[in-house]
Amino acid sequence: EGHSLTQFVRHCADHFLNSEHKEVRMEAARTCSRLLTPSIHLISGHAHVVSQTAVQVVADVLSKLLVVGTTDPDPDIRYCVLASLDERFDAHLAQAENLQALFVALNDQVFEIREL
Predict the structure, then answer these.
(1) Which distant-in-sequence residues (6+ apart) come within 8 Å of 108 by Cβ?
(2) What pTM was computed for the model?
(3) Which tens digits make up the pLDDT trace of 22-36?
């Protein structure tokens, strides 16, 4: 069920995006963005039948991904997070609370990250 998947994604974001190990953070970012895809597709196409909880979980996890994508000390992690947020996420990234993080990413010290 989609609802339990979103809760699992929230759990992954809460526990692994802030790991002290680079590889764990990188895989958590990839996993969260991939696992959000079905929920984002469902929300985009059938917003009237999606629970408000699922919508909130997607927003929360995306917010956590953006925090990591703009504040992680390792540029590889920042790149991985921002590269994983492709056009499927556009409607969510266009929300005011997410745009500020994207503007921060535009000023990243690493050119390849700014280019994304």
Answers:
(1) 70, 75, 78, 114
(2) 0.86
(3) 999 999 999 999 998
